[in-house]
Design goal:
Number of strands: 0
Low-confidence stretches: none
Strand content: under 5%
Mean pLDDT: 84
Order of helices and strands: HHHHHH
Radius of gyration: 29 Å
Distance between the termini: 35 Å
Largest sheet: none
Shape: elongated
Length: 287
């Protein structure tokens, strides 16, 4: 490996590390801002420890038992979804939200996949520019002036274009793909909240039927009434929480997409202008 190739590889690794660092910092910032502004989680002791603890924390991954527990929960959830298909939603707000979130989640997941493909294409173009630039540089060493100077300048152009293309790739991943990926997960969390509410509704309806049966048979009415009241209270509490969380989800979603997309477009314009200017400079030098 020549010194030039080593310098290029070092520069490439440094730019990739910087892009990954920026991406990690931005997502952590979004997540921590959301936690710190949440009415419940902002008072959580674990968040306080995470933000203020100045020593090393021992972090372990999930063990086999915990992973198996998560697998069982996912199967149970899928079974519940099939069981709740016939439950009719009486609240128009939650019925509309469930339809919207289901459609929104599917579409934004597809858009995230497309954005990832676009990022991959930018990266592939940058990799092609490396090979073209290297080939032109090698060809320039075996040619005489003025062709050698022309090939060298052309190689320099492709090297500059590669850097711009790499920046476009990392900025697309940072400002577009990560935003979409974040809201794929956030919309899934909102759907999970609605699922838990539907489960409480199912429990409430079950307790209503049990209460009617107890009154009809004049047997264990007091316990049935207490169970019905408890189920009603839990259903009302989660309904109130879900209404608040969904309203906040809408506000956050609009604000973050507006910020991220505006920054993404500004960066794309900036990089496109840089590409045009580089090409214009090359043509002027050859005129």
């Amino acid at each position: 490996m020549t010194k030039e190739e080593y310098a290029k590889m070092k520069q490439e690794l440094e730019s990739e590390y910087l892009a990954l660092f920026k991406k990690t910092v931005q997502m952590h910032e979004v997540f921590l801002n959301r936690l710190s502004s949440h009415p419940i989680f902002k008072c959580d002791s674990n968040l306080k420890v995470f933000l203020e603890y100045n020593k090393n924390l021992n972090v372990r991954s999930k063990n086999t038992k915990e992973r198996f527990g998560g697998f069982v929960k996912s199967i149970s959830k899928n079974a519940d979804e099939l069981r709740f298909i016939n439950i009719k939603e009486t609240d128009e707000f939650f019925d509309g939200q469930k339809k919207f979130l289901t459609d929104y989640h599917n579409k934004i997941r597809e858009d995230c996949s497309r954005a990832d493909r676009m990022t991959y294409v930018h990266k592939s173009v940058a990799d092609c520019y490396i090979r073209v630039s290297t080939g032109l540089s090698n060809a320039a060493t075996g040619e005489l002036d003025p062709l050698s100077k022309f090939l060298t300048k052309l190689a320099d152009y492709f090297e500059t274009a590669r850097k711009t293309e790499n920046r476009m790739s990392s900025d697309t991943d940072l400002k577009l793909s990560d935003t979409l990926r974040y809201y794929v997960r956030d919309s899934k969390a909102a759907l999970d909240l609605l699922h838990r509410r539907t489960k409480r509704l199912s429990d409430f309806e079950t307790e209503n039927r049990n209460l009617e049966k107890a009154r009809k048979n004049h047997k264990d009415e007091k316990n049935a009434e207490q169970a019905q009241q408890n189920a009603k209270l839990k259903f009302e509490q989660i309904s109130e929480l879900a209404r608040s969380e969904l309203s906040d989800f809408k506000t956050r979603r609009i604000s973050m997409f507006k910020k991220s997309l505006c920054e993404f477009v500004e960066l794309q314009i900036k990089h496109s202008n840089a590409q045009v200017q580089t090409l214009r400079t090359l043509l002027q030098e050859q005129a």
